[in-house]
């Protein structure tokens, strides 16, 4: 049984006499898949003064809807947005609280669990480093101290994040095979100008596929163009209507490629096809009334030989 890395939350404590691992049989799941897992390798040691018994309860939260409780309105975070979204929750096996089960004794134990993911209503896992908008799925395992055969004090809570990938159908995208064309003119003094054109023959692409894109630059600026860089821009847009109406957006560029010419002298035109393949990106999606993920081709053109980590003030034209 394959193990995924665990993520401990605030209830975990290295000094506690309990340790829990959550193991899954697969690393990636699709909607409708059956999850087979195991909560085990637990090390339950007796406490110095008394031996306590614990009960275990595991829950797979596929979406959370905890209500926001605040005395005065505050600007919602993206976590607040997700908590107010539609709920899809699954409760796996709960160990019965009866006379035959008096808790988990000292030692190592393993508990298997199985449940099926919904076939509808899920979205591909998404977690962008600098963005608060996320799509996450997790399994929680909680340990409670037994008190009169009922749940008592929460002793430990372990959380395991696992990814879900939702297949996409290009036939559902009306613009999948349509071409796209953008043109921009930057004007300078004395009638000088710079024309930049970016065209792509189709708009539905998958990771690893070569982007059918063409760049055309007509340089009448009075200077040589020494920099042209093509990348993919991720655009995340999130919206909330409660407790306050709020919208946020984030942008992040992937690694890209430069032009294959040393420079484009003033008074000349240049056309080239960048050798650029789609990186490992998840498909764009839209969670109605909550979050949208889109991708754009981005072309930066400048007069200086710069890197994308240097001062961006040298960029004279950006086309998306």
What is the CA-atom radius of gyration, in angstroms? Answer: 27 Å
What is the rounded distance between the termini? Answer: 46 Å
Oligomer: single chain
Report the principal-axis shape. elongated
| Fraction of residues in H or I helices | under 10%
Please state the average pLDDT score. 73
What's the CATH architecture of the largest domain? Sandwich
Compact overview of the structure:
The chain is mainly beta. The protein contains one helix and 20 strands. It has two domains: 7-161, Immunoglobulin-like (Sandwich), CATH 2.60.40; 170-319, Immunoglobulin-like (Sandwich), CATH 2.60.40.640.
Describe the structure.
There is one protein chain. With 320 residues, the protein is mostly beta strands. The chain has 2 domains: 7-161, Immunoglobulin-like (Sandwich), CATH 2.60.40; 170-319, Immunoglobulin-like, CATH 2.60.40. 2% of the residues lie in helices and 41% in strands. The chain contains 1 helix and 20 strands. The chain has one helix at 78-83, and strands spanning 7-8, 21-24, 34-40, 54-61, 89-94, 111-116, 126-127, 134-135, 138-147, 150-161, 180-187, 193-200, 213-220, 227-240, 246-253, 257-258, 268-272, 285-287, 291-302, 315-319. Strands 14, 15, 16, 18, 19 and 20 form a 6-stranded antiparallel sheet that branches. The longest helix has 6 residues, at 78-83. The two termini are 46 Å apart. Mean pLDDT is 73; it is low at 1-12, 43-74 and 81-88. Residues 190-314 form the Arrestin C-terminal-like domain. Belongs to the arrestin family. This is Arrestin C-terminal-like domain-containing protein. It comes from Wuchereria bancrofti. InterPro entries: Arrestin-like_C, Arrestin-like_N, Arrestin_C-like, Arrestin_domain-protein, Ig_E-set.
């Amino acid at each position: 049984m394959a193990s995924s890395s665990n993520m401990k939350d605030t209830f975990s404590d290295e000094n506690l006499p309990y340790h829990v691992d959550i193991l899954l049989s697969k690393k990636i799941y699709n909607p409708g898949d059956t999850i087979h897992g195991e909560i085990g390798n637990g090390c339950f040691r007796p406490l110095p003064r008394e031996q306590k018994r614990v009960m275990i309860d595991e829950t797979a939260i596929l979406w959370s809807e905890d209500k926001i409780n605040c005395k005065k309105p505050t600007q919602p975070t993206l976590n607040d947005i997700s908590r107010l979204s539609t709920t899809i929750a699954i409760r796996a096996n709960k160990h019965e609280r009866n006379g035959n089960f008096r808790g988990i004794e000292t030692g190592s134990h393993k508990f298997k669990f199985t449940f099926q993911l919904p076939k509808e209503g899920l979205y591909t896992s998404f977690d962008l480093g600098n963005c608060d908008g996320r799509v996450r799925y997790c399994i929680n395992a909680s340990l409670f101290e037994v008190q009169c055969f009922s749940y008592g004090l929460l002793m430990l809570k372990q959380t395991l994040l696992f990814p879900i990938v939702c297949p996409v159908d290009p036939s559902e995208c009306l613009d999948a095979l349509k071409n796209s064309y953008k043109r921009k003119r930057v004007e300078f003094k004395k009638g000088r100008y710079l024309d930049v054109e970016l065209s792509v023959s189709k708009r539905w692409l998958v990771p690893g596929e070569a982007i059918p894109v063409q760049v055309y630059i007509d340089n009448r600026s009075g200077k040589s163009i020494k920099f042209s860089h093509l990348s993919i821009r991720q655009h995340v847009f999130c919206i909330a209507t409660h407790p306050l109406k709020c919208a946020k957006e984030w942008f992040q560029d992937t690694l890209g490629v430069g032009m294959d010419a040393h420079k484009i002298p003033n008074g000349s035109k240049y056309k080239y096809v960048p050798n650029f393949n789609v990186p490992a990106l998840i498909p764009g999606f839209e969670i109605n009334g909550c979050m949208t993920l889109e991708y754009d081709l981005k072309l930066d053109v400048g007069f200086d030989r710069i890197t994308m980590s240097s001062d961006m003030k040298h960029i004279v034209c950006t086309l998306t």
